[in-house]
Amino acid sequence: MAQENDSNEVSAKFSTLNVNAVEFVPSFCTPSSTATAASVVAAAGTGSPTAAAPAPAPSVAAPTSATSSGGSNSGGAGGGGGATTPTSTAATPTPPSSSAPTPMERDEDPVKTPENNESEPLDSWDAEEDSILTPEDEEMELDDGEVDGETAPKVPKKKPPKVEESRSKKEHVNVVFIGHVDAGKSTIGGQIMSLTGMVDKRTLEKYEREAREKSRESWYLSWALDTNQEERDKGKTVEVGRAYFETEKKHFTILDAPGHKSFVPNMIGGAAQADLAVLVISARKGEFETGFDRGGQTREHAMLAKTAGVKHLVVLVNKMDDPTVNWDLERYNECKDKILPYLKKLGFNPLKDLTFMPVSGITGQGLREPIDDSTCPWYQGPAFIPFIDELPSLNRKTDGPFIMPIVDKYKDMGTVLMGKVESGVAKKGTNLLVMPNRTQVCVDQLWSDDEEVTSVGPGENVKIKVKGIEEEDVSPGFVLCDASNPIRTGKIFDAQVVILEHKSIICAGYSAVMHIHCAAEEITVKALICLVDKKTGEKSKTRPRFVKQDQVAIMRIECSGLICLEQFKLFPQMGRFTLRDENKTIAIGKVLKVVE
Fold first, then answer.
1. For residue 521, what are the contacts with CB-CB under 8 A and spacing of at least 6?
2. Pairing assessment for the beta strands 479-482 and 403-411 based on DSSP bridges
3. pLDDT for res 511
4. E strand or H helix at 558
């Protein structure tokens, strides 16, 4: 009886504040509801989507506010309550009538949202009829209502001080350098940086001195992009190097992909962020042939770039200054004619989105200034940098929800996530979600290519420092997205798959590794649904028992874990994937529908 009186008093106090008592006083909870709260926390910890979904809204809100205010939950609430009592006494305190649900009832029945939300000010997204609210969204709404009512000061909801918008004005283009090992990708990247003044002369002289000491003097330019010791010692790129340079119109991010076949997964991650691919082939006798023949990386890289959704391909025929080539037109045409049929087969159109250029990476000819007539009288086209500067600008989704696949992460006074923004805009102080484990985070700082900005838009290569998640809880392939409109997650999906090269047949039960945006996940083929005719696009009436090379099939695929993905027709970047097995790319495909 005494307990009931107590609870009535507390609920009366809190009903004047228009908040839920359970959120602020943890002791004010029935044992059952504390158990549910604990189970919800546990579920959130494990990240199991089934357990987290039907959670009662207020009991979820309690732990989140606890963490955000640094554990001093009741203390913060007490302070907040004290601050607002003078104003609340002015209004007539409503006695706890039988019609208003007591916090106990509220806790047990989270579905009664109209009663909960009636008393709270409408948020901007409350007005939309078609928004289906999950318990998590509901909890966010409750939070917002409290802030508008100015009851409890919460830490992450601080309005950031008005800063003038700082964001890069130029259009961002991401360029990935791909090609066989030792074709000169890093050297060209380093040379471009030196020509555009992104690496100063002293640094280059230092690199040159160090390279000469190792009797590798031709490698010094590539050291601008191959920064770690292992890459420099072996002369091989391992991770995707990053750098940037600017022209008058555009801001280019260089992604220097590794050419070695052991590091193709890294290269796929780099190509997934690119808008423009530069395929570097070596014109030196013997080098072009090894790169282009079966087992060379030139073919596989070009195909992976096409699969990753690269719009335009520039083929740089490098090492034209080599004594075996000496700017010879015949050799240039030989390389071009051998590779052109293959690139056409991949779907590149030579008239629109495919360009060939002769260059020399080590001397820098043909990169910034057109090649001298005395050296190369037969080529009259533009140089590389002016050419990519003049390419038509890409259409970006600025108005969509924010989506950024996470490529990499590290710890630096907080968790810093790296990636390319695919759509939408994020500003300092925005609340975002990390999917697929549904962790809510708050944006603390933003950098676009090492320059600090207050908002970032699509196409930019960014680093975002967030609060609310530990670095070890994030892995590459997770997606940072809008909290009100999160990206789809799924484990089983239907996809249209083209088998490129595979010696044996593929049946149900076949397993491989799938690369989708920045994620790599093990998958198994659950069922083959039908075959698709390549020419007519007709689907077979019967279910095939197997698929072999050069066939197109629609199959149901199951992943080993939950991944973020989207239908290809709705959002191409998040719906295209490659399948790899035994260090070879065996198939490419697109997501048709997410089953579960």
1. 477, 513, 514, 559, 560, 561, 563
2. antiparallel
3. 93
4. strand 552-564
d(C-alpha 339, C-alpha 341), whole Å: 6
Q: Which CA distances in Å does 127 have to 67, 111, 122, 124, 303?
A: 30, 19, 7, 6, 47
**Residue 523 · residue 558 · CB < 8 Å:** yes
Please report how the helices 73-90 and 57-68 are oriented relative to each other, as an axis angle in degrees rounded to 10.
110
Contact 515, 587 (CB under 8 A): no
d(CA 579, CA 513): 6
User: Angle at Cα 134 formed by Cα 130 and Cα 138, nearest 5°?
Assistant: 95
In terms of DSSP bridges, do strands 250-256 and 171-178 run parallel, antiparallel, or are they unpaired? Answer: parallel
Give the amino acid at 293: D
Kindly report the three-state secondary structure assignment for every residue of 22-35: HHHCCCCCCHHHHH
Length in residues, the chain: 596
List C-alpha distances in Å: 356 to 329, 373, 384, 460, 581: 13, 18, 10, 27, 32
Q: What pLDDT does residue 584 have?
A: 86
The mean pLDDT values, 10 residues at a time, for the chain of 596 residues are 58 54 50 49 48 44 43 44 44 48 48 44 42 43 43 42 60 88 87 87 88 84 82 83 86 87 85 88 88 82 86 89 88 90 87 89 88 87 89 80 90 89 89 90 88 87 90 89 90 92 90 90 93 89 91 93 91 89 89 90
Is the torsion defined by CA of 344, 347, 350, 355 positive or negative? negative
